[in-house]
Amino acid sequence: MKHLESDALSRGGALGIYCMSALVADEASHKGFRDFATSVEAAMAALLSGLPREDQMQALRFAYEMALGGEEPAPPRLRLVYSRD
Length: 85
What we know:
mainly alpha
């Protein structure tokens, strides 16, 4: 994550709350607290729906980058095409 993006998250606000909630929901799910994770995800959806479109995109992108933990995203999977010819 870029330094500027990290600063934006550390200031708090809706983007920071969304990203921190995503981390909490992921950890809760991995530790076996699926009902709690589902509740957090529902609250995240409500928060996200109340944000302007640009903030929604930023929140989703930041949360995705945080989930990757600095790793590069996986390359797209090959698509198999069936042809009768």
